[in-house]
Give the backbone structure.
Amino acid sequence: MAAKPSNTDLECPVCHVNFQEPKILPCTHLVCRKCVVRWLSKDGSQAGCPLCRVAILSSTPAKDGDLDTLVDALPTDLAILSVIENQKVLSSPHFCAVCDGNITASAYCLQCNMKLCQSCTKGHTKIPHLQSHVIEALDTITAERLAGTCRMMCKSHPDRLVELYCDSHQELICMQCFLTSHRHCPEVKAVTDIAQQKRAELKQIAAKLLKKEAKLSAEIQASKNAFKTCRKKVKDIFEDLEHLLRKRCQTLMDAIQAEEEANTLLAGMERKRASLKAHAGMVTNLASSAGDDAMLDMMGKLKPRLQDLEGTLGTGDGANLPVMVTLNTLKLNQLKDAISGFGEIRKVRDKPASPMTASISRSMEQDRPVSPIVLSPTGTDGSSSAIASSRGEKPATELKPGDIVRRGAGWMGGEVDGRGAGTVVSRFIKLDEGRVLSMVKVKWDNTGAESSHRMEESVIELERL
């Protein structure tokens, strides 16, 4: 059962009063006809819905008079309009439509669309051709119930109810219209018969739309999950790298600590330092506080020892300590460069409506360039970083996407045509037998082909183009 519309559902979002000829906009929002016309006249014929900004009209009116015609072509929500009209009926004084005077009505005939008092209700049910009419109490009937049973009057004959539907002209007609204007139309059926058929068609359409909506919802969720997977994968990779670096750092620290504790030379040097300090203090005290006789006597006795200590000076200052840790700065710089160029944000252009999960995952695993989203080919001043550089040689490790390069002897494989220029497409890393290699991909202007090169083994000659 459809939900009962609230008072807010029956109000125009622009004028905030009950709808008057509510028009169904392309986005399905409802706005009064007069409000639509006023909105389009104010903000231009290409203005969007007041609620969601989706375009209201598909074409621009050639002249001012065409605007009313285009707005009139928008479908009117007769169901909401009927509920509003029947709310007015139920909110008006309940007087019997048959009796003279203000006799209070207590019931409503759904077929006759009139209020009846208690005595007229009894008489209504005794008339043979009215006995099939449905009569309901006014205190229980709702505007929605009345709207669902309300019959429309014929547009050509306002005093007659519509009884037939001409499918050829898609028009509701009365019997008089059929006899005068639609007798030869091939598809004229009773309203009740055609309504049942159309309701079934509407349910099928709704089912198809819901099926498409569910499929699109699944694709949206798949895309969101793909981005979530990408975030997790990037986070996991760099957390693993951070863990590996911390673990390696701790391993080296432990090794250094062990070497320090086990180093006998260092321990001997520490004992010698302590002896030097102690004797220096003793000699200082002797020189400052001992008498002449005592000082001379003690100097004679301490002279050999002090000479031995003086002889050790300069031999235990740590200059001959072994180098315990060696850091390969070349590999460290290569690793830094590899990390700085690792990973690119990509998007798929060939199947924009399909889920991105497989493409994003495959791109991350294989590092294949697929139309980068964020790859700035220019410097901060807006000019090409390569063009802004003067002619000369430059390490390949400094290249960025968008740099313009010329093939030179420094390239692996040597020079092809001596003057081939190209543009750096992307930077990436790859693993080769446990080694992390920094790579650059270049698209060559003369052939349109792309080639990949190890950056640490290439020197690029830049040329102002």
User: Anything to note?
Assistant: Residues 350-393, 409-418, 459-465 have pLDDT under 50 and may be disordered. DSSP finds eleven helices and 14 strands in the chain.
